[in-house]
Design goal:
The chain is built from four helices and eleven strands; from the N terminus they run ααββββββββββααβ. The protein is an alpha+beta fold and 182 residues long. It has one domain: Sandwich (Jelly Rolls). A hairpin with a 6-residue loop joins strand 1 and strand 2. The protein is globular, with a radius of gyration of 16 Å.
């Protein structure tokens, strides 16, 4: 699929905004969540809208839901927006490409990729995406967790205005979570 149709995008934003309260047992609190297993459908998770390209991010597992060793989620990257070159100082990262294609830059070397590709990035490796022709849907995981904190602080819940952050503010927040942009 080259891009999400408007109905699917609306569904992802709307259904995803239901959040994890839908999958935790009634009366559960976050402290109980650390003791609970759970199953999420494709559109479920903590839903955020990216500050830069307005793609949907779903955080599926993190310390807030009981995963102390890693964080996992999906990220929609709108056609032509890419992901700027950056590195994670303390996290290894893996992407699995669910939809789309483009070029992945790893330590200044471009690598073409398409749906079904797996991309491993060790900590401190500079990396970024270019997707001039297709929207991307990426499954990401980081270990140890931390990236999800950056998303929570820079992105917004569906239906709320985007945060107006300067480049300097974004860099400051990124460093707080162990990420550095070029």
């Amino acid at each position: 699929m080259d891009s999400f149709d408007p109905q699917r995008r609306s569904f992802l934003v709307g259904a995803g905004s239901l959040g994890l309260t839908q999958v935790l047992p009634p009366g559960s609190t976050q402290s109980h969540a650390t003791q609970q297993s759970y199953v999420l459908d494709m559109s479920e998770g903590e839903t955020l809208v990216h500050f830069r390209d307005h793609g949907v991010i779903l955080i599926k597992a993190s310390p807030a839901t009981g995963s102390d060793q890693f964080a996992l989620g999906t990220q929609q990257v709108m056609q032509g927006t890419g992901i700027p070159v950056h590195r994670h100082l303390h996290m290894d990262e893996v992407f699995y490409v669910l939809e789309g294609s483009g070029s992945f830059l790893l330590n200044d070397v471009p690598h073409p990729f398409e749906k079904g590709a797996t991309i491993f990035i060790p900590r401190n490796a500079w990396h970024g995406f270019q997707n001039p022709d297709h929207e991307l849907l990426l499954l990401w995981t980081v270990s140890p967790p931390g990236l999800e904190g950056f998303f929570r602080e820079t992105c917004t819940a569906p239906g709320t205005p985007s945060k107006q952050l300067t480049r300097e503010q974004i860099h400051e927040i990124a460093l707080k979570y162990g990420t550095e942009f070029r």
